[in-house]
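Hi U.,

Before I forget, here's the chain from the pilot set. I'm dumping it here mostly so it's searchable later in email.
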Amino acid sequence: MSKSKRLMELMMTVNRMRKFTVRELADQFGVSSRTILRDLQELSELGVPLYSEVGPHGGYQVLKERILPPIAFSEEEAVAMFFASHALRHYLFLPFEAESSTALQKFYYYMPGDVRDRIDQMKNRVDFLTHTRQQKVESLGVLLDAAVDQRVVTVLYESREGYAERSIQPVGIYASNGFWYCPAYCFLRDDFRLFRCDRMKSVAYDTTGIEPRDHRHIHLGNWREYGAEKSVYVRMVVDLSREGVQRCESELCPVPLIDMRPDGSGRLDQNVPASELLYFAKFFIGLGNEATVKEPQELVNRIKGILTEMMAKYD
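Structure:
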């Protein structure tokens, strides 16, 4: 086996084993202990974070910040990976903000010159726009780690009633229209709730001894199904112009089910929670003549009520 191939396989092996001895590696690769020591020294110089322990139970360990083995990308894959990460720059806050920036710099730096030239030419010709919000969201990393590790956090949350402390167990985090959201089990309400991350003024791991629940089977795709309060749904039917369809698809989350017509217009016909009719009333008022609500009548009445109040204000 050539030295370069041995070093490559050695890097993947130590990443997988995490803890090992020189003798174990020497036997596995069929070389002397002295050769393995030289190889480990070269890996360390290349950036693999190795830590040695002396004594009868000693050996080598790979630190937590492991270096992943090289991955071969085609030119098209490399460009796609770059722009997928590049698009995140529109978010002022990310759960891995510093890491995504340094990863993108490394990725770009080690590309062949002609691939970098192609990316430079494409930067001003392709983008993934999202709403840029100014609200601070500085605890995304803690919330994400708590969701993965099944831990409880205490948050100081701002609601209509003011500030209140909540002990929650996050399900995960997601971004929509520039805002970050955190579905979580709320121990105060004894049920799942959806929290706006920018309204969390502080986030810290719980120190009161609340026992986390086993929610490993609950994720962003199904958390609503486990809520104790079952939503009452009503059928909502709305005729949309071409622009109305585009606005609904870009601004509503989740993306609504729209029956498209050949001219680009369409009809939205789906069940929605009755508790969100006020939100939909305000949303469709914002679309003006691009949307015509057909049902439910309660939604039509809410739109009329809001418009009547607005007319009185400007009369």
